[in-house]
Each structure stands twice: as C-alpha cells, then as structure tokens.
Amino acid sequence: MAHWRTRFLEKEIRSALKWSPCIVLLGMRQTGKTSLLRRLSEHYLTFDDDALPALFERERESLLGEGPFPLALDEVQKYPKAFELIKLAIDRVKIPGR
Questions:
Q1: DSSP label at 74?
Q2: Is the dihedral of CA 21, 55, 27, 32 positive or negative?
Q3: pLDDT of 1 over the 70 cut
C-alpha cells in the first residue's frame, strides 16, 4: 500500500467493535473498504479465494468462535451461506468485536 488515508469511519468502526459482536461495511467499489478491513482486523479472509468456502465449512467453529478477533470476512456475498453461519455463531456467544 503506497499510502494510507485516515478514514472518517475508522473511529466509528473501532467504537462499534467495543459493543457490537458484528459489523457490516458496505459501499461502492474502489473506495477503500478492503484496505480499511485489513487495517482494523487481526485476521483477514476473503471469499475471492476459491479455497475459503471449504475452509470456512471445515473450520467455522474455530474461526467464528475462537478468533483471533476482530475477524474480517471480505466479499462474503460470494458465499451466501456464510451469513447464516455467522448469525448462528453470534447467537451462541455475543462477544463484542468479533
């Protein structure tokens, strides 16, 4: 990354991670969402990687339950089943900042 511009939302996201178990970052293409996710997360995974759905199925209990947190899941719309699995994990244990 050649340079980093501090994003207005960075402070808001850090604040939300203190009380919310999950946040969603939506926006137009090429606006810095992925860069922001990488900057704020302990562990970054992207569903652009064709191997991730199989890994997610196999390791979801440890990924969503044990961390490291915050965990960033990018391009999750490419694997719709992930939304249900994330919801179930959050419903089981509501840990802020996952």
A1: E
A2: positive
A3: no
